[in-house]
Amino acid sequence: MPDQNIPHPIPVPSVEAIDFPALPLMPEAGGRPSGDLARLNLNEAPMSPSPLALAAAQEALADSHRYPDHHAGALAGTIAARTGITADRIVFGNGSGELLVQCAQVALDRGDEAVMPDPTFPTCGKGVQMTGAHIVKVPLRPDGANDVAAMLSAITPRTRLLYLCTPNNPTGNLLGEAELERAIREVPATCLLVIDEAYFEFAGGGGEPDTLTLLRSRTGPWVVTRTFSKAYCMAGLRVGYALCSDEGLKRGFSRIRHNFNVSRPSLAAARAAFEDEAYMRAAVAETVARREQLRAGLERLGFAVLPSFANFLTVRFNGSAAALAQALHGQGIAVQALGWPDANGSLRITIGAAEENERVLAAIENQLEAA
Ligand SMILES: *Cc1c(COP(=O)(O)O)cnc(C)c1O
């Protein structure tokens, strides 16, 4: 019997102390997303997955009485063929968010430190807190990119993880080749370099750095995480992957990974989606074209729009972003308000369908006129 006199609150204090933003409540009547709400707050794709992915998922569904292939051999082989990273260095997660938590678990002990940009995608930081390590937050550059020089200066002998997010969520800007190269060279070999490339597919084509090629010169451990949730339009299927510097690191992930963590239909859909590169490229091109239209519209309304290499725009104006987000919510448009970079904050607006873009522009214009 446990001694009832020793207080042991449940949840335990270390769990209560985890500082993690709550996800918005978006009720789905009948279990389907409502068509009335413009969901421009989660960086989802407005278009459905590739028809080939849907067909593959449908076919796999029939075998659902069998556990999925834990090693995801077929999908790993497909990804290995294109990335040049062999299957014994690829790990799969229920979304790349799961892998970002595992990055912290693989690299950190209680009392260690993890250097992260601020603001950034919160999930790796959640993993850091779960290990009892400390987050060292380094402010972003004013243009919304990670500040590599400042992050390198924040490294101490206790630093065991450095997280880069490029393009950074929630700001959209990416790291140039020189900065990425510097991080790869100067982050100590005693430290896991995590590079979150959730928007990798949106950034292609403009002379952006090739992370995997640059990483060939790194002596220390590294992980690059990517996802099927954004460019592949499969957020609801939950598949992400991590490319690892070496097999030993992958074995570390394998120890903490839950068995059969990615479902059979999801694995099948991901493989088909990855092979249907034309569909993904078309979805990205459409999103980028609409992003630039929205940028022009918002600039016309006097907004300052940050550089974006992703499927969202982060914008500022001379007023409270939180109040504007609230007003838009009242009109059935969900956007994300950020407490960055100053008291006015900024808005992160996902690039939705063409009519959603028009709707959000018109609603913002109305609000500014009413104000
Ligand atoms: C969306 C996103 C992810 C992961 O999403 P999953 O759906 O869990 O794969 C990871 N990092 C960033 C920066 C993101 O924006």
TrEMBL record:
<keyword id="KW-0032">Aminotransferase</keyword>
<feature type="modified residue" description="N6-(pyridoxal phosphate)lysine">
    <location>
        <position position="230"/>
    </location>
</feature>
<comment type="subunit">
    <text>Homodimer.</text>
</comment>
<dbReference type="InterPro" id="IPR015424">
    <property type="entry name" value="PyrdxlP-dep_Trfase"/>
</dbReference>
<dbReference type="InterPro" id="IPR015421">
    <property type="entry name" value="PyrdxlP-dep_Trfase_major"/>
</dbReference>
<keyword id="KW-0808">Transferase</keyword>
<keyword id="KW-0614">Plasmid</keyword>
<keyword id="KW-0368">Histidine biosynthesis</keyword>
<dbReference type="InterPro" id="IPR015422">
    <property type="entry name" value="PyrdxlP-dep_Trfase_small"/>
</dbReference>
<dbReference type="InterPro" id="IPR004839">
    <property type="entry name" value="Aminotransferase_I/II_large"/>
</dbReference>
<comment type="pathway">
    <text>Amino-acid biosynthesis; L-histidine biosynthesis; L-histidine from 5-phospho-alpha-D-ribose 1-diphosphate: step 7/9.</text>
</comment>
<keyword id="KW-0028">Amino-acid biosynthesis</keyword>
<dbReference type="InterPro" id="IPR005861">
    <property type="entry name" value="HisP_aminotrans"/>
</dbReference>
<feature type="domain" description="Aminotransferase class I/classII large">
    <location>
        <begin position="40"/>
        <end position="364"/>
    </location>
</feature>
<keyword id="KW-0663">Pyridoxal phosphate</keyword>
<dbReference type="Pfam" id="PF00155">
    <property type="entry name" value="Aminotran_1_2"/>
</dbReference>
<dbReference type="GO" id="GO:0004400">
    <property type="term" value="F:histidinol-phosphate transaminase activity"/>
</dbReference>
<comment type="similarity">
    <text>Belongs to the class-II pyridoxal-phosphate-dependent aminotransferase family. Histidinol-phosphate aminotransferase subfamily.</text>
</comment>
<dbReference type="InterPro" id="IPR050106">
    <property type="entry name" value="HistidinolP_aminotransfase"/>
</dbReference>
<protein>
    <recommendedName>
        <fullName>Histidinol-phosphate aminotransferase</fullName>
        <ecNumber>2.6.1.9</ecNumber>
    </recommendedName>
</protein>
